[in-house]
Write a structure and sequence with these properties.
Largest sheet: none
Structural class: mainly alpha
Distance between the termini: 67 Å
Order of helices and strands: HHH
Number of helices: 3
Shape: elongated
Number of strands: 0
Oligomer: single chain
Radius of gyration: 22 Å
Helix content: 55-70%
Length: about 80
Amino acid sequence: MKSIQRTTEVISVSLPKDLVKELDKTRKTRGQSRSAVIASLVNKIAEEERWTRIYKRGEKTARQFKITSEDDIDRILHEP
């Protein structure tokens, strides 16, 4: 018999009762499972953290190259 490999992992989460009510209200409104709602929230947080790292890297690069305007970017791109 061929075994089926799971692509998900079962975890246990404890939440305050009022938060569970909000989760269930959200899940019903979206027509999703609790797992799907929680997964989308985790993905949203991860995406926000990635953008935060990108912005911080951009700020560091701007300081390094003394970029304060779009004119500075144009100057850097067109320097010989």
